[in-house]
Amino acid sequence: MQSEFLSIEKAAEFLSVSDITVKRYIRENLIPSVEQNGETMIDKSALERYKAINDKFKR
Q1: Average predicted confidence (pLDDT) for the chain
Q2: Torsions phi, psi of 43, nearest 5?
Q3: What is the Cα–Cα distance from 14 to 48, expressed in whole angstroms?
Q4: pTM above the 0.85 mark?
Q5: For residue 58, how far is the Cα from the chain centroid?
Q6: Are 22 and 15 in contact (CB under 8 A)?
Q7: Domains of the chain by range and CATH?
Q8: What is the pLDDT at residue 54?
Q9: What is the CA radius of gyration of the chain?
């Protein structure tokens, strides 16, 4: 099964945060990213895991 990758903008929408926040998460190694054709991309499954853990601690 091939992974789905999201741009920083789409990842920000998915997490309901700003683009700058997603860039900070990447810089702080909270979510992994890869470069594809000069664009930073994030594996959607990694975002889903991050969101699940983050939501658990918000309660």
Answers
A1: 92
A2: -65, 125
A3: 9
A4: yes
A5: 18
A6: yes
A7: 5-58 (1.10.1660)
A8: 86
A9: 11
